[in-house]
Design a protein that fits this description.
This protein is mainly α. 76% of the residues lie in helices and 0% in strands.
Amino acid sequence: MAKTDPRARVTLLEGELSRLQKELAILDRQWARKHLLAAFGLVALPALYFGTLYAVIVLLCTPALVATQAYLIGVRRSECRELIEEARREIAHLRTVLAAAPQAA
């Protein structure tokens, strides 16, 4: 298996870094709006029409829903940050390899 050209690898990693930064911006916006899911608790008012049990179920499930969303977004944000740092380290390493490599004539 042939080695990948470092220049091509840097280009690919820069594209991936750009994509990850955009994804992180989206995740940050979702993180800022995670509390809006608590509005699901308003469904408890119409649920009272069907009985207090349904309203209680809705009120108990709403915090679980918000917490689940916060957990999933938080994990993905953390993972995205780690991938960004890994890509930056690899780009820096490849650039030092390219700088140290003798120039082909």
